[in-house]
Every structure is written in C-alpha cells, then in structure tokens.
Amino acid sequence: MSKHLQNDVDQLHRRLMALFGVVEQMADKSVRALCENHVELAREVIATDPSVNETEVEIEEDCLKILALHQPVAADLRRVATVLKINSDLERIADLACNIAERARCMHQHAYFPIPDQLTPMVRQSTLMVKMALDSFVNSDVDLANKVIQLDQSVDDYNLAVINDLTELMQQDRQYVEPALHCFSASRHVERIADHAENIAEDVIYLVDGDIVRHRHESFETGVDSNVKLDD
Asked: Nearest 5 degrees, angle CA 148-CA 187-CA 200?
C-alpha cells in the first residue's frame, strides 16, 4: 500500500469510527426513550439525524475518491468496499433510531399502556449486537462477529413474543389499540437494528477473511466451503 493510500484509508477509518460512536448513542437513546418514557432523549435522537446523513454522504464520497485515485486491489479494495457497506448500515441504524424515537414520543401520550415484558430484553440484545459489531470491526475479530450473527435469532424470537403480547392487549381493550400499534412499529424497528448489526458483522468477516457469508450462515458455521473468497 502506498503512503498516500495508507493516509487516505486511515482517515476514512477514523471518520467511520466517529460515525459508529454517534449512531451507537442514537440507538441507545432511542430505546431508552421508548422503555423509560423519556421524551427529551427522543428529541435528541431526532435532532442528531441530519448530521449523520451528512457524514454518511461524505464517507461515501471519500470511498469513491480512493477507488478512483488509487485503484486499490485485494485487501485494500476489500477494506474500502467494507467501509462503503458499513457506512450504509450505520445510516440505516440512525434512521431506525429516529423512527423508534418518534414512536416513543407518540407513546408518551399513553402512559397507561403496559409495555410488553419481552421488549426490554429485546432492546438490550439489539443494542448489545450493535456494540459487539463495532468491537468486531475495531479489533478485526471474526469470532465476535460470528457471535453477533448468532444473536440475531434471539432478537427475532423476542420480536415475535412482543407481537403476540400486543395482539392480546388489543383484543382485551380497544383503548390499547393505538399505543399497541406504535409499540408494534417500535419493536419492528428494534428488530431491524439487530439485522443491520448482523450485516456489519458479516462485513467484518469479509474484511478479515475475504469470505462472503451473507445468506450462508448455516454452511459457514458448519465449516462447509461454499463461500466466495477474494484472495489477498
């Protein structure tokens, strides 16, 4: 790797890490706003979104400049491609955090509504996945990335349990219908955050090993060699 390419890639890495930190805080604040009925946190999340969108565009432009100017290959190309994909996933997590914050603001008007018990552990699991995905990227830790992927099913199970509880609440009392719909939407957004954390974990595996494991988790975990690989 040339010195100029190394400098540009290092700067790109630093900008992505800064974005990671902002988005992780947004996800944490949004779910706290939802579970703790904290409207001010919801406002903070929504106010942060424009700067995330701006940073996401800037990072993408930097990636395209590196590709055009330096024409990286092999491992260098993998890194730039991975940053492009993670950058997009982070922007989507930020959008989902804003959606959760909006639902939290709506539910604030229905303080009487009993939030399903399963929502809290689901939220913890999703935010943990985001943090683990970040750590796996920082440390190039494939084992940790695999753990993120494995956690996704439990979030899906929590989401299903929340939906079942909300359905029962709506059947019990019509006054629960509106807040239950807001809660249903929020639960879905939390589940999608976990999906994007899983995407980032998959990108880390691609970055480190050159293996594309997307849609191939079962064969990857059992050691079947059915992955596409780009050699260093």
From this structure: 25
- Total domains in the chain come to 1
As beta bridge partners, residue 228 has: 212
> Which tens digits make up the pLDDT trace of 191-218?
999 999 999 999 999 999 988 888 776 5
Contact predicate 179/113, CB 8 Å: yes
Q: How far apart are CA 18 and CA 149, in angstroms?
A: 23
Domain that holds residue 99: 3-229
Burial (CB < 10 A; 0-12, 13-18, 19+), residue 92, is middle
CA distances from 103 to 43, 48, 159, 174 (A): 11, 16, 16, 19
Domain of 210, CATH number, reads 1.20.58.220
Beta bridge partners of 212: 228
> Within its chain, how far is the Cα of 180 from the centroid?
24
pLDDT score at 218? 55
The model's pTM: 0.89
Q: If DSSP codes are grouped into helix, strand and coil, which group holds residue 1?
A: coil
Q: Which residue in this structure is represented by tokens 């706290």?
A: 32
Which helix (H) or strand (E) covers residue 85, if one does?
Answer: helix 74-107
